[in-house]
Each structure stands twice: as C-alpha cells, then as structure tokens.
Amino acid sequence: MNSKGQVIIYAIMIAAVVILLAFALAPALTESSTISMNGTSGDTLGLDCSNSSISSYDRATCYVQDLFAPYFIGVLLFIGGGAVLARIVFD
C-alpha cells in the first residue's frame, strides 16, 4: 500500500474517533443542560428557565444553554467529516 492510502486510512480512523466522541458526549451534554435549566431543588442549583419572571440576562443564559449541546455535537461531527473529506479530496 502506498503512503497516500495509509494516510486516508489514518484520517478515517481519526474521524471515526471524533464522531464516536460526539455520539458518546451527546447524552451527557443533554442531561447536563436539562439539569441546569430546571429550577433549584435540593443541592442542585438551576436557572429556572420555565419561570416567566426571570431577568433578561437569565433568559439569555437559558437560550445559550439550550443551544450549546446541538452546536457542540454538530461541530464535532463537522470536524470528523471534514477530516475524511479533506484527505480524500486533497490527497
């Protein structure tokens, strides 16, 4: 096998690790986001995002917290796919 073929296999392995990392982190990030957006209960401090009388700063924090997990996972998937595509197209 020539070195170009070896580099493509290496890139596919790295991309697979990044994609698997994204899928492995998805449930944990979603659960963490859900817990932090709920109200305070016991030792768990939350933002209480369902409350309509929170300040606009807290509401903005709730929106950012709600969008963090999908964007983070999407970026990881994009990086993994980009690694494979770059090695296939540009080599």
Would you give an account of this structure?
This protein is mainly α and 91 residues long. The protein has one domain. Helices cover 77% and strands 0% of the residues. The chain has 2 helices and no strands. The two termini are 15 Å apart. The relative contact order is 0.19. The model has no long low-confidence stretch (mean pLDDT 84).
Task: Give me the secondary-structure topology.
Layout (H helix, E strand, L loop, with lengths): L2 H35 L18 H35 L1
Helix pairs in contact: 1-2
Give the CA-CA distance, first to last residue.
15 Å
Mean of all residue-level pLDDT scores: 84
Largest sheet: none
Please write the string of helix (H) and strand (E) elements.
HH
Structural shape:
elongated
Compute the CA-based radius of gyration: 19 Å
Determine the fraction of residues in helical runs and give it as a percent range.
Answer: over 70%
What is the number of independent domains?
1
**What's the β-strand tally?**
0
Low-confidence stretches: none
β content, as a range? under 5%
Instruction: Quickly give the structural class.
Output: mainly alpha
- Supply the number of helical segments: 2
What distinguishing features does this structure have?
single chain; about 90 residues; mainly alpha; 2 helices; about 75% helix; elongated
Q: What's this entry about, in short?
A:
77% of the residues lie in helices and 0% in strands. The chain is mostly helical.
